[in-house]
Amino acid sequence: MNRSPVLIRLLDRRTRALKRHIPRAIAGDDVGVHQARVASRRLREAVPVLSEGLHGSKAGKAQRKIRKLTQALGTVRELDVALGLIDELDARQEVPKAALADVRAHVMSEREDRRRVMHERLEDVNREKLERRLQSVRDALAAPSPDHAWRSALAHRLVTGARRLDHAITKAGQIYAPEALHQVRIASKKLRYALEIADESRAARCTADLRLMKRVQDALGRLHDLQVLQHHVAELDAAPISRRAAGDPGLAVLARVIEDDCRMLHARYVALMPALQEAATRIRREIAVRVTAPRRRPAKMLLAARRRTAGAAP
What we know:
This protein is an all-alpha fold. It has helices spanning 4-26, 30-50, 59-90, 97-124, 127-142, 150-172, 178-200, 207-237, 248-292, 299-312. The relative contact order is 0.12.
C-alpha cells in the first residue's frame, strides 16, 4: 500500500501549524510562543523519520533550522508560564500578596530581557529557506522511492525512546527529585511525538498509550513549571533587600505553598508510574514491531477487491 499521501498530509499538518503560530509568537502572544514551540518539536521528530532513505530532500538542513527555532522560542516560554502560575496563585487566600507582587516584577523584568533575545534569535532563522527545505522533503515523499525506510526509522525511534523513558523512570524512582523527574518528562514527551507519527500514519494504532503519555506530561509539565517559579522565588529571596519589599517571611510562605503543590503533582505521577512503565515495554515490544510489519489485508478482502476490479474492466 502506498503511504505517500498519508505521510505528506502528516508533514503538511505540522508545517502549517508552525507557519500559523510563528507570527503570533513574534507578536508577543504567549499562547503563540507555546504552540509554535510544540509545532517545531513535532516537526523535528517527523522530518528525520519521513525522509529516511529518500533522495533529493534537504531534511538535514531543515532539521537544523527547526532546532534553531525551538531554541529561540524556549527562551521566553518558561517565563510566560511562570506569570500564568502567579495569576493563579494570586487568587488563593493563603498566598502573601506582597511577596507575589515582588516575584511577578522579578519575572516580568527577566521576561522582557529574554523576549529581546528571542527576537534576535528568530531573526537569525531564515524562515523562507526553512519552507524551501520542508518543501524538498515533501517533494521527495511524493516521488516513488524503493529505498524509503520510514517504517524502520520510526520503529528505531520508538524502541530508543521507550528504552530512554524506562531508564529515566527507573533512575527517578519514587523519590521527589526535580532533575530526575524533568528527564522523565523530556523522555515521555519525545516518545509521545513518535507515537503520534505511528498513530497518524496508521502504521500502528496507539490511542490509549497517547492518552497516558498526555496525562503524564500534564502532571510533570505543571510540576516542572512550578519548580521554575520556585527557582525565581529562591533567586529573589537571595537578592539584595533593595530589590524586594515583602521581606523574607512572605517569600518563605510562598515557597512552601509552591512546594506543597509540587509534592501533590509528584504523588499523581507516582500513581501513574506503573502504567507508564508498562506502556514503555509495550511500545518497545509490540508497537514498534507492528510498525515494521504492516498488517496485510485479509485474503477474502483482497479476492473481493480483485473481483470488483475485474467486473469494472471494459
